[in-house]
Amino acid sequence: MGSATPHDDAASEVFAICPAGELPLTDECRHYEGKHEVPWDIQKFVINDLYPSDLWLTLFRYFSQRYSIFSWYDEGVCLTDDAWFGVTPEPVANAIAADLQDSDPSKTVLIDAFAGAGGNTIAFALSGRWHHIIAIERDASTLACAQNNARIYGVDPAMVTWVHGDSFDYLHTLVNRPETLHPALRLDIAATVVFASPPWGGPGYRSDEIFDLRTMQPYNLEQLHGAYHLMDHVLFLPRTSDIRQIAGLAPEGRKIPVVQYCMQGASKAMAAFIPAKATFR
């Protein structure tokens, strides 16, 4: 699947950042058909960033949960080995997309800052809520998987512009030097929402009862909010994240909605819906 405006050599020379165009599936893009094909570190009991170890670690393995991650997995869904650990389960992705349905109608564009294998991008595209989606992913093989998976789910190619690159670089350029971006990537900031499902790591992430978002790695709360604060943004965070730190992002006199997303009665993660121009403190 390509973006609405394909990448070409001429555009590369003129613009700082261009749409990715259609990327080929690589050897790292895999569709496992049986557990015997799955590498040990996926098949064995490995702590999942989305499933708390005290309940899910001993009950499920990544591959066994493939239909919760992508219900159309058997149609040819591909993931890189690393992508298994960061995909938002499809029911959660759909719930987040549904929760944004009634958001400010003047916001018509969504940036998926960490697109991964495409789970959230697909849900947003199929929701019908957005006029345009910019989906950004640093790893080319993972981005190729996302494009493949979006095609399987019937996402309109004109709906999503895929970007192979760093979302922080893109947002910095969008705010400070928009004229250097390919025209397909120049957005009205006032009409844009950012969704960010960053990697979750850092000391205490899996063990602390309340997770300190200042220590999250490789991007902490301050870095994320600092990059997105000019736009409404949704942060998809560990379920034990410190609510007080999130509340500190609220503008004067306003509150930040925080939603816990559950599957089979257990919380998998939380999302904080943060308005534009909030001040980090």
TrEMBL record:
Highest taxon of the lineage: Eukaryota
Alphabetical list of InterPro entries matching this protein: RNA_cap_Gua-N2-MeTrfase, SAM-dependent_MTases_sf
Reaction(s) this enzyme catalyzes, per UniProt: a 5'-end (N(2),N(7)-dimethyl 5'-triphosphoguanosine)-ribonucleoside in snoRNA + S-adenosyl-L-methionine = a 5'-end (N(2),N(2),N(7)-trimethyl 5'-triphosphoguanosine)-ribonucleoside in snoRNA + S-adenosyl-L-homocysteine + H(+); a 5'-end (N(2),N(7)-dimethyl 5'-triphosphoguanosine)-ribonucleoside in snRNA + S-adenosyl-L-methionine = a 5'-end (N(2),N(2),N(7)-trimethyl 5'-triphosphoguanosine)-ribonucleoside in snRNA + S-adenosyl-L-homocysteine + H(+); a 5'-end (N(7)-methyl 5'-triphosphoguanosine)-ribonucleoside in snoRNA + S-adenosyl-L-methionine = a 5'-end (N(2),N(7)-dimethyl 5'-triphosphoguanosine)-ribonucleoside in snoRNA + S-adenosyl-L-homocysteine + H(+); a 5'-end (N(7)-methyl 5'-triphosphoguanosine)-ribonucleoside in snRNA + S-adenosyl-L-methionine = a 5'-end (N(2),N(7)-dimethyl 5'-triphosphoguanosine)-ribonucleoside in snRNA + S-adenosyl-L-homocysteine + H(+)
Gene3D superfamilies from the UniProt entry: Vaccinia Virus protein VP39 (3.40.50.150)
Family assignment from sequence similarity: Belongs to the methyltransferase superfamily. Trimethylguanosine synthase family.
Entry protein name: Trimethylguanosine synthase
